[in-house]
Amino acid sequence: MRASTRKEIGRLIGSEKGTIAKMYGDVRVALVYPNSYRLGMSNLGFQTVYGLINRNPLGRCERSFLLEEKEAVTLESGGTLSSSDVVAFSVSFELDYPNILEVLRRAKIPPRSEERDDGHPLILAGGAAVMLNPEPIADFVDAMVIGEGETALDAILSTVAARKAKGKVSLKENLARIDGVYVPCFYQTDIDERGRLRGVEVIGDAPYPVRRNPPPDIEQFDTTTEVLTPNTVFGQRLLVEVSRGCPRACKFCGVKSIYGPARYRSAECVIAAVEGKLRGEKRVGLLGAAVGEHPHIQEICGWLVERGANISISSVRPGKVSAELAQALSRGGVKTLTIAPEGGSEKMRRNVGKALSNVELTECARIVKESGIPSLKVYFIVGLPGEEQDDVGQIISRVAELSSIIRVKVSLSPFVPKARTPYQRIGMRPSDYLRRTISYLQKELRRMPGVTFSAGSARHSQMEAAFSRGNRSMSRWVERGAVPPSAIEELACRRIPEEEILPWDLFADARKDHCPITGANYPGSSPSGSRV
């Protein structure tokens, strides 16, 4: 390890509280976040897996990131990834897929699964992006967790500990029997000359369909920050998950399909998770896709405020922001409350399954202002299906109305079709349309007093869409690090015909009785296709 790498690791570790230095465990795991330390340590899922593996007697887990020094080593011991039994990637965003290959290259591990032998580590992957559609990285990863990690990790560690000496083939065969684990080499895909998926052949006795593991009772697991460090997006803040999944059904969002059903930690469970750690850290972040839907969120915030905590909170649905909740958040030091109406017009919000009225948005702004919170962050999506010029104009009208009440921070993102959502077959708007619309809104909104503006990149969003809906033919672009301009627009903007097989059809869908790939009935369904 180079001296500069050692110095960088020392700087990062030196600012941490709670670093785990475990010296035993049959299965050595290098847990990799394929992006910067700052982003990885801001990810509560990554931190949770780090703690879960180390609490298992069989596991010994160390962390690794894309360090600026371009060496693939772990923070805790400085060990090489190639010396681990398992290299496990935590992947939340599709745009990090090429970074997986960069990490493997730095570690001098052959990128493609077929190029690796028994002397190389087992390569695992999990996280939200993988749960939605793992196929673009299927050629590089030995096994993937397509369900929630809490109910799969112990079985994976036990299997690796028992089978690692028997070779990769035996290990993969046993991993494939675990619910929630997908082993791509047992599923050969037939892709035509245009890059379209024509079919899948299941090899041997690999399970079909690939099923998710049962969703865990989140009250049985402590999902809070394991390692505190100031080098995160949130600063040195204790994060705690208060809910998982979402009861809503927004057509553009994959949360409901991969984290359903919606679950809420009881107030008692959240308080117990925070109480022991609150003595040392008074800054607490409440996380979840539906924090505002929590039936006892006001009670939780009140308890934290009484103990002098400084609070931050995920996006809250406007109709759920009561005066009492806003006042508790204000007392807890919240300076900006985040809401996500997504569409500027009521028509667009109804179309995407987010029925919020303009009156609710205005009332929310008024309540937040009166509570003493000085600003509102508002998320909008442009390029949604059915969007017309009037809908774009109404974003301006909504911001004008809200900014007459309170300071507004506008965040704009292009619509990206995601796997496992009602909009999965719909293509994006062309990049010219997106850039023109974003430029227009930027010009109009930045001239309003009390309004700040930021927007996502049209090109990056299209690359995200290409990876989000891709099959294994995308591996060539993952290896090259990006989708070329000549291909990105076609992949992102293409509307997928109803008769075309989707890459993620291989995975069991509770809403269907048979697999669209083979036409065979799922186990537990009758020949007629109805559930029994």
What this model shows, in words?
This protein has 532 residues and is an alpha/beta fold. It has a domain at 3-202: Rossmann fold (3-Layer(aba) Sandwich), CATH 3.40.50. The protein has 18 helices and 17 strands. It has helices at residues 3-14, 37-40, 44-55, 97-106, 128-132, 153-163, 168-175, 255-259, 267-278, 297-306, 323-331, 346-351, 358-371, 389-403, 431-446, 458-468, 475-480, 485-493; strands at 27-33, 59-65, 86-90, 122-126, 143-145, 181-182, 187-191, 197-202, 238-241, 243-244, 263-264, 283-287, 310-313, 336-342, 375-382, 407-414, 451-455. The strands form five sheets. Strands 2-1-3-4-5-6 form a six-stranded mixed beta sheet. α10 links the parallel β12 and β13 (310-313). The longest helix has 16 residues, at 431-446. It is globular and about 65 Å long. The protein starts with a helix and ends in a 39-residue tail after the last helix. Residues 523-532 have low confidence and may be disordered.
